[in-house]
Each structure stands twice: as C-alpha cells, then as structure tokens.
Design goal:
The complex is a heterodimer. Chain A is mainly β. Chain A is built from no helices and eleven strands. In chain A, strands 2, 4, 5, 9, 10 and 11 form a six-stranded mixed β-sheet that branches. Chain A has a five-stranded antiparallel β-sheet with strand order 1-3-8-7-6, with no helix packed on it. In chain A, a hairpin with a 7-residue loop joins β9 and β10. The radius of gyration of chain A is 13 Å and the shape is globular. Chain B is mostly beta strands. Chain B is built from no helices and eleven strands. In chain B, strands 2, 4, 5, 6, 9, 10 and 11 form a seven-stranded mixed β-sheet that branches. In chain B, strands 1-3-8-7 form a four-stranded antiparallel β-sheet, with no helix packed on it. Classes of the chains: A mainly beta, B mainly beta. At the A-B interface, β4, β5, β9 and β10 of A face β5, β9 and β10 of B.
Chain lengths: ~110, ~120
C-alpha cells in the first residue's frame, strides 16, 4: 500500500532561520513528487515539482531534493519569513498509479517575527 | 492564482441530500482530478477525468460521481450525503497523462461542504 508520511507535524521557528521539512514514501517507483503550500481554509499552491529522473529543484529560497532509493524528499527553506507560515504538503505520484497523487498529512509551519 | 475556479465556495447540506460541485480548469488543461480533504488531513484522491472519460478512481463509493464537459470543466456529484462527507473538496487541472512525469497539477481554492 502506498503511503506518504511527513515529519514533523508542526514546526515553529524564529524569522531568518533555515529549515528542512521531511517527506517519506513507501515505494521507490515514483512518477514524480510535488510540494505544495496551503494557507488556512484555502486551496493548494504548487511550489516545486521533481520528476523521477531528477535529484533536486530550486525556486527562490526553496530547494527540494529527491532520493528515490531511500524513499525520501526534503524541502529546504532558506532565511524563513513570517509570510512562509502555512501548511506544507508533499504529494507523490507512484509509477503504478500515475494519475493520482498520494498526500502526506502536512507540516504546519509557523515563522515567528 | 492558478486559473482554476470552483463553485460554490461554501455549502451546507443535510444528511441524505445530494450535492453538485463545479470546477473550471485552467485554460488549455484537458485533465481534472478531484480530491477530498478532511480537517487536519492531506487530500485524498476521488477520481480523475481525461478528455471527458474517467481515468482512475480512488477508494470512494459509487455515490461519488463526476462529469467532464467538452470545455473541460467538471462536476463532482455526491448522493445520499453522510456526516463524514463534510470536508474541503479540491479540484486540480493539468495538461494530462501524456505529459508524463512533468505533469504539474494546479489546484482551485476548494469548496467547503458541511453536512448536518
């Protein structure tokens, strides 16, 4: 059974700190992995998409890495800001069910000014 | 803004009723996926439509059904509503399975359904 797990469930950091969010998945045969941001009561905003053939993707202060062999992805946020406060969701598309995403339960991030 | 819109924003229904939720895809996207997100959980895949045909279904009962129209807008219908159906319903549009691993999903703002 494919599962996606995110730790920690919640994280609180002071402004300016660098931080890492973790995502693990049970099957290394993935199609792609996408990180999303969700503000309270809102939809999902796509942050980064990593294809199965890639090791990392970068966008501004965000860097996502992928290690298929260990079933892990990390989202690195540099120089955190209060506006980064949100829930971050990891979604994995597996090779044998390529048309659907499996989501983790998310990490709730609070950046304290 | 992703260009994906959903209506209505909020909806309150009672047990046993039927509901229809609507989604308008981003321009040029021929694929739409629907997800259910319960409070404090990650979204769960309901089904996907590609060029008006169902293209995969998650672990949801048949009372959850959908349609995709020629303009690629979509509807999610839920019959015989239950209390546990209370959730945020999200639709996501994409360029489709032929894009392979580069296919990014773009989500709408969601419809908050409350079943009393």
């Amino acid at each position: 059974k494919q599962e996606v797990t995110q730790i920690p469930a919640a994280l609180s950091v002071p402004e300016g700190e660098n931080l890492v969010l973790n995502c693990s998945f049970t099957d290394s045969a993935i199609y792609n992995l996408q990180w999303f941001r969700q503000d309270p009561g809102k939809g999902l905003t796509s942050l980064l998409l990593i294809q199965s053939s890639q090791r990392e993707q970068t966008s501004g202060r965000l860097n996502a890495s992928l290690d298929k062999s260990s079933g892990r992805s990390t989202l690195y946020i540099a120089a955190s800001q209060p506006g980064d406060s949100a829930t971050y969701l990891c979604a994995v598309s597996f090779a044998n069910t390529g048309n659907q995403f499996y989501f983790g339960t998310g990490t709730s991030l609070t950046v304290i000014p | 803004e992703t260009g994906v819109t959903q209506s209505p924003t909020h909806l309150i229904k009672t047990r046993g009723q039927q509901v229809t939720l609507r989604c308008s895809s981003q321009s040029g996207h021929n694929t739409v996926s629907w997800y259910q997100q319960a409070l404090g959980q990650g979204p769960q895949f309901i089904f996907q439509y590609y060029r008006e045909e169902e293209n995969g279904r998650g672990n949801f009962p048949p009372r959850f059904s959908g349609l995709q129209f020629p303009n690629y807008s979509s509807e999610l219908n839920v019959n015989a509503l239950e209390l546990d159906d209370s959730a945020l319903y999200l639709c996501a549009s994409s360029l489709g399975p032929k894009r392979g691993s580069t296919d990014t999903q773009y989500f709408g703002p969601g419809t908050r359904l409350t079943v009393l």
